[in-house]
From TrEMBL:
Entry keywords, A to Z: Exonuclease, Hydrolase, Membrane, Nuclease, Repeat, Transmembrane, Transmembrane helix
Domain PLD phosphodiesterase positions: 201-228, 416-442
Signal peptide per UniProt: none
Record SUPFAM superfamilies: Phospholipase D/nuclease
Its membrane topology: Single-pass type II membrane protein
Identification of the protein by name: 5'-3' exonuclease PLD3
Family: Belongs to the phospholipase D family.
Reaction catalysed by this enzyme: Exonucleolytic cleavage in the 5'- to 3'-direction to yield nucleoside 3'-phosphates
EC number(s) from the headed UniProt entry: 3.1.16.1
Organism: Pelusios castaneus
Pfam families: PLDc_3
Compartments, record wording: Early endosome membrane; Late endosome membrane; Lysosome lumen
Keyword hit for Nuclease: yes
GO cellular component: early endosome membrane; late endosome membrane; lysosomal lumen
Length: 499
């Protein structure tokens, strides 16, 4: 499509979305604060009424009864409390051939986690996915490390005959993409719907999550690709025995499922049953591994967010804004642009927020960015510009390192592999595990999602919190031999092999 055609196709609302995200967010925030004020008035009214009733009871009925203050504690509790015994586990794929120091933090593998989820499934498995290449027929290589992907596909295909209903939402494949896996799954009894985000929002369905028996979930960076198990570095989270969270993620799946119908259009507003009460303002209150946690799921793009759903960009910006000590970010790619727009457009929402945190609150910012032959050349000057803020005199602290997955001769022949595909952020308060690259397109046009967890500090002798575990992963990678400070690169050094 010619740029002029694309420009003409932008309607006023979309232009606003691109140019004024901050104002939009402000408007949203105002709506929320109005609602919050209403809620405060309501609660205050109930409180006063209860107090009055207490006083009256105290005065006239129970002259020697219990003090009325005790009655106030019996106020109706929030509907966002969940009593499921949820357990959360960080899940990683570490590409073959990578080694860390002894005693480095290690997490269960994506392969093992997926295999366990499949084996435990009793009634249903819903998968939201970008594309499927679990066998290495796509590369015409005969890779021994494709075996894990092939195993996952084989086990998935057995689910329908075990009575487990399987639904797969996938981004509408490009014409040259192979469909073998999806066809095989359909033949085995899975139902597949292709979601045409290109037509709907000029993006793709980039979300990656699983929901098992409406009780367990996986959400993270791993695609349904054999390389995501053995050749690409991935990070995600599995949450077990957590039906309240799984059902909320289910609403996001149902939205994709609806949009996968032929000629579907995006409802505005979404019907009430897609809405949620779990969000940034009123998260789900649940125990994760026995420790109190506040949890919510965010979603992109804005058009896919039903009433009450926190937009992914809004979530990410507010997490940076709430940090008081540090913000550590590990993403495959970082660009303050709409990278898929022609002509290119500058898009600074996240970049501004990072600079603001470094300047106004002296928050320590660290970015660990994936680096491979497909990295965009434009990424590096923007990253260097962020790192240029680092300054001992003013105590602005912004550091940028590039992470390179090592490649041997045989591995170099595998297309689209050997990269750090992580998409997470950890601050002094929050663990944010997402599915999006960090550039404007992913938040405004492409379907993505994130799990956001904050936990009160765990007691000394119990298990670490998810935030602590994620911080350990970040530190391991930041200090590893695979990371390199962007400032130490020579002028002509092309460490990522960018063409
Ligand atoms: C690993 O941890 C053990 C036990 O805490 C310790 O004895 C050992 O020295 C550590 N090894 C390294 C290489 O740090
Ligand atoms: C989930 O709950 C079941 C039944 O109570 C239990 O057997 C299982 O170990 C739990 N899973 C996790 C990961 O805690
Ligand atoms: C909402 O209700 C419609 C009609 O019954 C149904 O098709 C859809 O799946 C529901 N959505 C959710 C999120 O449950
Ligand atoms: C994420 O970013 C990288 C680098 O720009 C790109 O190669 C990759 O295709 C992106 N992912 C998707 C799904 O677009
Ligand atoms: C800033 O301080 C650190 C630690 O004290 C030091 O290693 C570094 O060289 C200083 N950088 C500059 C530019 O002065
Ligand atoms: C939660 O419990 C699971 C196993 O039950 C464990 O693997 C995981 O590391 C724990 N997560 C945290 C954050 O402590």
């Amino acid at each position: 499509m010619k740029p002029s055609t694309i420009l003409r196709k932008l309607n006023a609302q979309e232009i606003q979305e691109q140019l004024l995200p901050a104002e939009q967010l402000n408007r949203r925030a105002q709506q929320y604060s109005q609602r919050a004020q209403l809620a405060v008035i309501l609660v205050a009214t109930i409180l006063v009424a209860t107090l009055l009733a207490g006083v009256l009871t105290h005065l006239f009925i129970l002259p020697f009864g219990s003090p009325f203050l005790e009655r106030v504690e019996v106020l109706p509790s929030s509907a966002n409390i969940c009593t499921d015994p949820c357990r959360a586990v960080l899940v990683e794929s570490i590409p073959e051939g990578m080694t860390y120091e002894d005693n480095s933090t290690i997490n269960p593998s994506t392969f093992q986690t997926w295999q366990n989820l499949i084996r435990d499934a009793r009634s249903s498995l819903d998968i939201a996915s970008f594309y499927w290449t679990l066998t290495n027929d796509d590369t015409h290589t005969h890779e021994a490390t494709a075996e894990q992907g092939e195993q996952i596909l084989a086990e998935l295909m057995q689910l329908p005959q075990r009575g487990v209903s399987m639904r797969i939402a996938v981004s509408t494949p490009k014409s040259k993409q192979r469909l073998d896996d999806l066809q095989a799954l359909e033949q085995s009894g899975a139902v597949v719907r292709k979601v045409n985000m290109g037509r709907l929002t000029r993006g793709v369905l980039h979300t990656k999550f699983w929901i098992v028996d409406k009780t367990h979930i996986y959400l993270g960076s791993a695609n349904m690709d054999w390389r995501s198990l053995t050749q690409v570095k991935e990070l995600g989270a599995a949450v077990y025995n957590c039906s309240c969270l799984a059902q909320d993620l289910g609403k996001m799946f149902e939205a994709y499922w609806f949009l996968g119908l032929p000629d579907a259009s995006i409802p505005s507003p979404w019907p009430a049953n897609y809405s949620t009460t779990f969000n940034k303002e009123t998260p789900l209150e649940v125990k994760l591994n026995g420790t109190d946690a506040s949890v919510y799921l965010s979603s992109a793009p804005p058009a896919l967010c039903a009433e009450g759903r926190t937009e992914d960009l809004h979530s990410l910006l507010s997490i940076i804004d709430d940090a008081s000590e540090f913000v550590h970010i590990a993403v495959m790619s970082y660009l303050p642009t709409m990278e898929f727009s022609h002509p290119g457009r500058y898009w600074s929402a996240i970049d501004n927020q990072l600079r603001k945190a470094a300047y106004e609150r002296r928050v320590h910012i660290r970015l660990l960015i994936g680096c491979w032959e497909h990295s965009k050349a434009a990424m590096f000057p923007f990253l260097k510009s962020l790192a240029a803020l680092n300054d001992n005199d003013t105590h602005y602290s912004v550091e940028v390192r590039l992470f390179m997955v090592p490649v041997d001769e045989a591995q170099a022949k595998i297309p689209y592999a050997r990269v750090n595909h992580n998409k997470y952020m950890v601050t002094d308060k929050v663990a944010y595990i997402g599915t999006s690259n960090w550039s404007g397109d992913y938040f405004l046009r492409t379907a993505g999602s994130a799990l956001v967890v904050s936990q009160s500090e765990a007691n000394a002798n119990v298990e670490p919190t998810l935030q602590e575990q994620l911080l350990a992963v970040f530190k391991r990678d930041w200090n590893s031999k695979y990371s390199r400070d962007i400032n130490t690169l020579g002028l002509r050094e092309n460490i990522c092999n960018i063409h």
